[in-house]
Write a structure and sequence with these properties.
28% of the residues lie in helices and 23% in strands. The protein is an alpha/beta fold. Strand 9 (221-225), helix 9 (236-239) and strand 10 (245-249) form a beta-alpha-beta unit. The longest helix is centred in the N-terminal third of the chain and has 12 residues, at 2-13. The protein starts with a helix and ends in a 7-residue tail after the last strand. 42% of the residues are buried.
Length: 374
């Protein structure tokens, strides 16, 4: 039994990046111990994993067991409820690791199946992996906000840059290896949007693209925090824009620059804080309204601290290289004022270590929230 649910989870992972704003789901149909149908959801494929697996099984689905990574939907969205297809196929039993937290389903699917005489079995020991596969979707359903991940490449002493990085005539260099930078593309692929600050753009002329080469359900939305609207029209971001670049600015921005960028297809939004700077918090609210499930921050020291201090960041993913920059002028991963006392340090939980290359590792952890915070 466990091997079939594991296969369904493997299938669900094949939908990463290609299902948002839907969850990534895999399904396997088993009859008399033999797998007779398989399916996984992608946005472009329209049909959900359960329906694809049942269609693959055809008449062999009658009397079979359906293994699925998330409770089948009980509501009508872009497609009819999967529950209807399961009942019409004559499935005898459904096995899943967890309920769907979407308020439109949230236990209703399992209830309908049981009421129709279909046996339902929950295997909660598989829930941790199922949750990890759909952490952005589940976070969005729980909080109504996209999952925000702060990513950084860091030296062992917590630096992201040297004092002269970005100075005129400087030669760009990398903190982490090519292997680590390739791994970053997997994070970008699983993200709906990515944000950086104008300082990073001016220093690096960064692309912020998903270079995984894998199918996406929608383009990666590239966002720049740019209070004075300094984004050059000849920058890579502006020149490569295909309705996938957004600049967040303030009321102090030049109307002429706004018009020029908009003529290139760049979306310009005025979202400012009380101190007159572009608002990262408002960006998250905007993305929530437009059903973006996840946002990755790849920025400089000041934006990183703002994301942590404001509570915008939900988790971190830091790549560590076997290097030390040292010095009081090197750029820390999070600048700004910082916390004045050690007891006030921002806390993290559920820390995971990832081996990236022979001498590199990554730290993934969730920001510890105060009681009652999302």
């Amino acid at each position: 039994m466990s091997v079939h649910l594991e296969e369904a989870l493997d299938l669900a992972e094949r939908g990463w990046g290609a299902t948002s704003p839907n969850p990534a789901v895999g399904a396997v149909v088993v009859r008399d111990g033999e797998v007779v149908g398989r399916g996984f959801h992608t946005w472009s494929g329209l049909k959900h994993a359960e329906v694809l697996a049942l269609e693959d099984a055809r008449e062999r689905a009658r009397g079979a067991t359906l293994y699925v990574t998330l409770e089948p939907c009980a509501h009508h969205g872009r497609t009819p409820p999967c529950i209807d297809a399961i009942l019409a196929a004559g499935v005898r039993k459904v096995v899943a690791p967890m309920e769907d937290p979407n308020p439109q389903t949230n236990g209703r699917g399992f209830t309908r199946l049981r009421d129709a005489g279909v046996e339902v079995e929950l295997l909660p020991e598989f829930a941790p992996r199922a949750i990890e596969i759909n952490e952005a979707f589940l976070h969005f359903m729980r909080t109504g906000r996209p999952l925000v991940t702060l990513k950084a490449a860091v030296t062992l002493d917590g630096k992201i840059g040297a004092p002269e990085d970005g100075a005129p005539g400087y030669t760009p260099g990398w903190i982490t290896s090519e292997t680590a930078r390739a791994h970053v593309q997997t994070l970008r692929h699983r993200s709906d949007a990515i944000v950086t600050g104008i300082g990073t753009v001016l220093a690096d002329d960064c692309k912020l693209t998903d270079r995984s080469g894998l199918e996406r359900s929608r383009p990666l939305l590239r966002i720049v925090l740019d209070s004075q609207l300094r984004l050059p029209t000849e920058s890579w971001l502006a020149m490569s824009c295909e309705n996938d670049v957004m600049v967040v600015t303030t009321s102090a921005a030049s109307p002429d620059r706004k018009r020029r960028l908009e003529s290139m297809g760049v979306r310009v939004e005025v979202l400012e804080r009380s101190d007159g700077r572009a608002s990262l918090e408002a960006v998250v609210e905007l993305l929530a309204r437009e059903k973006y499930l996840s946002l990755m921050i790849e920025a400089g020291s000041r934006v990183n601290w703002s994301a942590l201090e404001s509570g915008v960041a939900d988790k971190i993913f830091f790549y560590y290289a076997p290097k030390i920059l040292g010095g009081t002028q090197s750029i820390p991963v999070a600048g700004g004022l910082g916390r004045r006392r050690r007891k006030d340090a921002i806390q993290f939980r559920d820390l995971k270590l990832h081996s990236i290359s022979k001498d590199e590792f990554a730290v993934e952890a969730w920001v510890e929230r105060e009681e009652g915070d999302a």
